[in-house]
Amino acid sequence: MKKYRYILLTLIVAFNASFLFSQSEFYYKDRVDMTDAQAAKASDYYKKGVELVKSASDGNTKEEARLLFENAAKMKHLKAMVKLAEGYTMGEHWKIDADQAIYWAKQAFDREALQASYYLAYIYFGGLGEAHIDYKKSRNYCMQFIEMEKKDPTFDLGSVAVVNTMYGLALLEGYGGKKNRELGLKHLKIACDHGLKEACQSYNGYSNE
What we know:
Blueprint: H1 11-14, H2 17-23, H3 36-55, H4 59-74, H5 78-90, H6 98-110, H7 117-127, H8 135-151, H9 157-173, H10 181-193, H11 197-207
C-alpha cells in the first residue's frame, strides 16, 4: 500500500462532523411532495431537532433530536433526510450506522437533494469500513458532486476537499474504473488548495513517482 494512501484513515479527522453538520443548513429544499399542513408539521419537527442538536448535552437529548429528524424525514422533508444521513455517517450526535446513512442519503439524493452524494461517495469509498466499499459507486457519486459544486459556490470547503481527494485517488489507483494520472493529480491539487493537508501530501507523493 502506498504510504500516501494513509489519507483514507484521516479524512474524517481532517474535517470533523460538527463543521460539516453546521455548514449544510442552507443546501437543501425544505419540502417536496407535501401538502401545506404536512410541510408545516415536518418543518416543526425539523426545527425542533436542529435546536436540540445545538443544545444537546446528553445522549437522551441527542436521541430525541434524531427521532424528530426521523419523523420529519418520513414526511419527505429533505433537510431532515440529509441530517439523518450526516448524523449516521459522522457519529457526532448519535451512533454511526452505515446502512441507515446510505438509506437516508439515497432517499434525499433520489428527491433531488443531490448534495447527499457526498455521504454516499464517502461511505462507498470505505469511510465507514470495508464492508460497504464499492469504488464504482463512490466514483460515480464523486463525479456528480463535483459537477454540482462547479455550479454552486455555496458548498463548504470541507466536503469539496474530501470528495476531490477520493476522486483523485480513485483515478490514480484505478478504483472503480480506469486510471487517469493527469486528472487524478488535478483533483488532489484541488483538494490541497481547499486546505486538506493530507491531500497536499498525497499530491506531492504521487507527483514525484
